[in-house]
TrEMBL record:
Active site residues per record: H72, N145
Domain (Catalase core): residue spans on this chain: 25-413
Example GO molecular function: heme binding
Gene Ontology cellular-component annotations: cytosol
Bias type Basic and acidic residues, positions: 1-19
UniProt name for this protein: Catalase
Pfam (any one): Catalase-rel
Binding locations of heme: R69, R109, F158, R355, Y359, R366
Per UniProt, location of the 3'-histidyl-3-tyrosine (His-Tyr) cross-link in this chain: H336-Y359
One biological process term in Gene Ontology: hydrogen peroxide catabolic process
Length: 713
């Protein structure tokens, strides 16, 4: 099979336009002689209606915007490829999964859910993770998230969920935040959301980088092989750089300092050749095991613990090229869980079933035409022929007089493909049922996996969940909503509820309020059953924590280190750390009281990357204070103090050598540093190899969260 990796790039080239060395023209190709002045009746006279050049320019400008996505409006995208490392022909006939080494071009878009297009990257939110595979059999879209479960079990609640989390309708506040009454009002009446609430209150919701998140297909899907045998699967993608987060206080500060933090990080990494990479894997469940577990495979609020079904890695996803044009590619790309290839099919998950309607429908209003598949980024590399015709902005010029099937005038073309010729056929599932507006009882356990998730977390991660809940519910103005939430949290873990209650100055209610009192229909009216809690066959799973996550490695590739300098800095110290970092694929940035260059101790000069005004600790992974004659003078500098305080508070590695130590010892937190804190590295010797090695090793642990014990009591 031909290697497809570049086929999408070749396809896009047809539409690329480069204005280098070209004349400025109108949209009709007319060369423009003066683009600076409109046509007027006299130099000081009114503009003339006949100025078609002005009218064309302004009209186009007036219509530049399209509606943003109703959810996932804020996103960043990149091109790349998927390479098969472990073909699975025994499970699926999908062509792009058959041959080891086959590379299929992809475009991935990673997004937040609630915020508008211009909102901050660091909102506490789920991250959407959508991948379009341009396969030889047509486009296949894997439209997932960075969390393996969802808030609701049935698509009919999706508009309610989104209305609740979006800015409140009367005053359009708050932007890109769930910490407000309507969200928690809805959630407190939806016990089925409790598992997802644990995820969204965990640090998974504030990733350090889009490159350091897992991805999940969430629903159970089907794979079908050439013999028409089927298995159920869950898709997982696991980041090469491990799964890491920032601190919540840090996330909020990043939002102010650089609202494009994740977008920029992804862009810069790709530009620097640090290509983000994930392993793609599947959990495979034989159809015979459909009813084997204490949860229903069709329930999207449940995951399959990896202890029960391990993830088999089948390939790798690499993002290696930034888009040429954000609007043309990242904004106009249109995903749909219903874009399938032979060998992959849906399950009856009622959330997935509803999605199958929503995605095409939303593209019609967002992109404005059923011809959105013709937009270059959406165009399949497999040939497209059918009898769909016309519509707004049709690009294709279909020849001939036939636009129907069957036909004899066109020789029966385009003709249907047999299954053996790659024709798609849905899995031949037997369904024999009553028509019912309701839910299966097997969906009723709303707390079992929420408990599993909470119990799997390390103490530090549990404390972050408590703090996140205190923050979110602390912003809720209606006391009854807070109390209702405490009642639900108590059903996950009593201590969790009590700790949150302490922060809110409230009491955990003795018996939780029934959602049914608030318009949620009782059993039989809508099919809602009361929540139950089922005993879990797995009590704790390391795959669910970030800190103990088996995907973690101690690489520091692409990490950024702030080097705090003043006049008279030791050039040797700066060079020593910079070259050591570079060897590990990381980078040091000189930060000083002013930009330009800085005099060194031997009267040399080094370039400054940022001033304290344009940089901030939250934009870096670690801080180093090199030796310097005048470094202690920065003790008086408020911005430097805040820089170091934040680095300490956010549990980052801080290192200092020579006189650099003096500045570290002059901080307000110096007296709190414990000797056991391996994230603080001080050495008398200047520019030593040992220091650099120790500093880099310490960075490999990412954060020293245990430091928080003496920060917050
Ligand atoms: Fe959705 C966009 C992921 C449930 C309706 N969704 C969207 C995107 C992602 C997801 C990643 C952004 C795609 C892009 O970058 O363009 N959605 C999910 C996941 C879900 C989920 C993982 C549950 C497991 N979604 C869901 C439901 C519905 C929708 C239940 C409706 C019934 N989603 C949409 C949408 C969006 C969308 C309105 C908005 C923009 C778009 O589709 O293209 O159709």
């Amino acid at each position: 099979m031909e290697n497809l990796q570049d086929s999408k790039h070749r396809d896009l080239t047809k539409n690329k336009s480069d204005a280098n060395n070209k004349f400025l023209t109108t949209d009709q190709g007319l060369k423009i002689n003066d683009d600076n002045n409109s046509l007027k009746a006299g130099e000081r006279g009114p503009s003339l209606l006949e100025d078609f050049i002005l009218r064309e320019k302004i009209t186009h400008f007036d219509h530049e915007r399209i509606p943003e996505r109703i959810v996932h409006a804020r996103g960043s995208g990149a091109h790349g490829f998927f390479e098969v490392t472990n073909p699975i022909p025994e499970l699926t006939k999908a062509g792009f999964l058959q041959t080891k080494g086959l590379k299929t071009p992809i475009f991935a878009r990673i997004s937040t859910v609630a915020g508008s297009r211009g909102s901050t990257d660091l909102a506490r939110d789920v991250r959407g993770f959508a991948i379009k595979f341009y396969t030889e059999e047509g486009n296949y879209d894997l439209v997932g998230n960075n969390m393996p479960v969802f808030f609701i079990q049935d698509a009919s609640k999706f508009p309610d969920l989104v209305h609740a989390v979006k800015p409140e309708p009367h005053n359009e506040m708050p932007q890109a935040a769930s910490a407000h009454d309507t969200f928690w009002d809805f959630i407190s009446l939806m016990p089925e959301s409790m598992h997802m609430i644990m995820w969204i209150m965990s640090d998974r919701a504030i990733p350090r980088s889009l490159r350091m998140m897992e991805g999940f297909g969430v629903h159970t899907f089907r794979l079908i092989n050439a013999k028409d045998e089927s298995v159920f699967v869950k898709f997982h993608w696991k980041p090469k750089l491990g799964t890491h987060a920032v601190a919540w206080d840090e996330a909020q500060k990043i939002s102010g300092k650089n609202a494009d933090f994740h977008r920029q990080d992804l862009w810069d990494a790709i530009e620097m050749g640090n290509f983000p990479e994930w392993e793609l894997g599947v959990q495979v469940i034989p159809t015979a095991d459909e009813h084997k577990y204490e949860f229903d495979l069709l329930d999207p609020t449940k995951l399959i613990p990896e202890e029960l079904v391990p993830v088999t890695i089948i390939g790798r996803i690499v993002l290696n090229k930034n888009p040429d044009n954000f609007f043309a590619e990242t904004e106009q790309i249109a995903f749909h869980p219903g874009h399938l290839v032979p060998g992959i099919d849906f399950s009856n998950d009622p959330l997935l079933q509803g999605r199958l309607f929503s995605y095409t429908d939303t593209q019609l209003s967002r992109l404005g035409s059923p011809n959105f598949h013709e937009i270059p980024i959406n165009r399949s590399i497999a040939p497209v022929h059918n009898n769909q015709r016309d519509g707004h902005m049709r690009q294709e010029i279909n020849t001939g007089r036939v636009s129907y099937h069957p036909n004899s005038l066109g020789g029966g073309c385009p003709y249907q493909a047999k299954i053996s010729e790659g024709g798609f056929s849905s899995f031949n599932e037997r369904i024999d049922s009553h028509k019912i507006r309701g839910r299966s009882e097997s969906f009723n356990d709303h707390f079992g996996q929420a408990k599993l998730f909470f119990n799997s977390q390390t103490e530090v991660e549990k404390s972050h969940i408590v703090k996140a809940l205190r923050f979110e519910l602390g912003k809720v103005e209606t006391a009854a909503i807070r109390i209702r939430m405490l009642g639900l949290l108590a059903q996950i873990d009593q201590q969790l509820a009590e700790k949150v209650a302490l922060g809110l100055g409230a009491q955990v209610p003795d018996s939780p309020e029934k959602p049914m009192n608030h318009g949620v229909s009782p059993e039989n009216e809508m099919g809602n059953q009361e929540s139950t809690t089922v005993k879990q066959s797995v009590s704790s799973s390391d795959a669910l924590t970030m800190i103990k996550n088996p995907t973690n490695s101690n690489t520091i590739t692409s990490r950024k280190v702030a080097i705090i300098c003043n006049e008279g800095v030791s050039e040797a110290c700066v060079a020593n750390i910079k070259s050591a970092l570079l060897k590990e694929g990381a980078k040091g940035f000189v930060i000083a009281p002013h930009q330009g260059s800085l005099k060194t101790e031997n009267d040399g000069a080094i370039p400054v990357d940022f001033s304290f005004l344009t940089a901030s600790s939250v934009l870096f992974d670690a801080v180093y204070i090199p030796h310097g004659k005048k470094i202690i003078a920065l003790e008086q500098n408020e911005e430097v103090q805040e820089f170091l305080n934040d680095a300490y508070k956010h549990c980052k590695v801080i290192g200092a050598d020579g006189d650099g130590q003096k500045l570290l010892k002059a901080t307000s937190f110096a007296s709190k540093i414990k000797t056991s804190d391996k994230g603080i590295i001080m050495k008398e010797e200047k520019a030593s190899k040992d220091f650099a090695t120790e500093f880099i090793k310490a960075m490999g642990k990412h954060r020293y969260w245990e430091r928080e014990e003496n920060l917050y009591q």
